[in-house]
Design goal:
By secondary structure, the chain is mainly β. It is built from 2 helices and 11 strands, in the order E-E-E-E-E-E-H-E-E-E-E-E-H. It has 2 domains: 116 residues, Deoxyuridine triphosphatase (dUTPase) (Deoxyuridine 5'-Triphosphate Nucleotidohydrolase, Chain A, Distorted Sandwich); 33 residues, no CATH class. 9% of the residues lie in helices and 32% in strands.
Length: 163
């Protein structure tokens, strides 16, 4: 698959894979005015990559955490998985979040996330009065494989979405 990419800044780095079999392409920080940047504890900073991409129709770019950055520095995308739609042409930006109780620093040119190109299926939603019954029913949040199926009444009492 061919994905067109445009450098928006001269020092931007084209995404790379860590190995021949890697699914993710590393995204690199491209900071306009600094060599490095700090993220305060439990704060989020929007980090530009200096690139724009043209992902083919029928696909999207999923932005995932880099395991090393998450485990060593406690930093990950704030929305856990970012989405780059095929019709988006602006700069790819990673909302990087610091999950630790200490300031964390990243450098210009540092790998901050990874981009995985994935196919998707579009859906036409159809409102109905009733859904078909299943063995699982309304059981959720840890109910599968336990043999415990909550009654609909118990589910309604626990639901965070009821008034």
């Amino acid at each position: 698959m061919r994905v067109k990419i445009k450098k928006l800044r001269q020092d931007a780095v084209i995404p790379t894979r860590g190995s021949q079999s890697a699914a993710g392409y590393d995204l690199y920080a491209c900071i306009d005015t600094y060599d490095s940047c700090e993220i305060m504890p439990h704060a989020t900073y929007k980090v530009g990559t200096g690139i724009a991409v043209a992902i083919p129709d029928g696909y999207f770019g999923a932005i995932f955490a880099r395991s090393g950055l998450a485990t060593k520095k406690g930093m990950r995308p704030a929305n856990c998985v970012g989405v780059v739609d095929s019709d988006y042409r602006g700069e790819v930006i990673v909302a990087l979040h610091n999950d630790t109780d200490e300031k964390q620093q990243f450098q210009n040119g540092e790998r901050i996330a990874q981009l995985v190109i994935l196919p998707f299926v579009t859906a036409d939603f159809c409102e109905v009065d009733e859904l078909d019954d299943t063995e699982r029913g309304c059981g959720g949040f840890g109910s599968t494989g336990t043999g415990i199926v909550e009654s609909e009444q118990e589910y309604e009492q626990l639901s965070l979405f009821n008034d």
